[in-house]
């Protein structure tokens, strides 16, 4: 059991593909820091994507992590088992007027942002900022569409959200030597971010914030590709009255061409390296761990 002062780390893979060296780096760094702080290391399977998450991939992830020599404190959290909780929290934001249903398809948004502005403003992921079409929808029409079962996702009303949680936004960042600094956050650059998916599932942003709090995570260690998302997470934490963990966003492991590793780009899976005879010790050494 952990006391109130025990640091809690987590590795939180999405079972959308096999783990590659980038995942191994993140998992090993979390484990390393947990050992150095006599903390706990948790595993969370972020299986919120009903199409891409597959049970056999979850088994494969567990097997790869065990092969690497990583041990996690029980239980392993599976996000797909908590969809009702995420829905309830989303409903609470909607009831406060801070989230609204969005009936726009991706192609409709693309078409609209293409016609309304020459070079549309984009969020940190490069997605054009939502033009706010459904935010302006009259309440009666919204109610009719919802009652008619029209497919919809849910968006944060960013302007209302920041006025409901006023003040400057910041979080504590730490480096692997546990030097800390304050980083200012700008959630507004995400615009009316999607927090509930059209397929009924939660968004990554909502689930990660709720789960880090639920699991008592004190130290989030994840890739730099998620650094900008932290700005939005800090806002959600404030809206829900949750504590902010400390964050370390580590550099990404790149392939020989300098590209970020991704299954879609054919990056070599840990399972392939293992099949080729690479040992866990060699993986550790290759990633700079002793
Ligand atoms: N599930 C996310 C991923 O695999 C990581 C989420 C996080 O660490 O906050 O990219």
From TrEMBL:
Keywords: Aminoacyl-tRNA synthetase, ATP-binding, Ligase, Metal-binding, Nucleotide-binding, Protein biosynthesis, Zinc. It comes from the Bacteria. One of its GO terms (molecular function) is ligase activity. It holds the Pfam family tRNA-synt_1c. Gene3D superfamilies: HUPs (3.40.50.620). Residues 10-280 form the Glutamyl/glutaminyl-tRNA synthetase class Ib catalytic domain. InterPro entries: aa-tRNA-synth_I_CS, Glu/Gln-tRNA-synth, Glu/Gln-tRNA-synth_Ib_cat-dom, GluQ/Sye, Rossmann-like_a/b/a_fold. Signal peptide: none annotated. Belongs to the class-I aminoacyl-tRNA synthetase family. This is Glutamate--tRNA ligase. It comes from Methylobacterium trifolii.
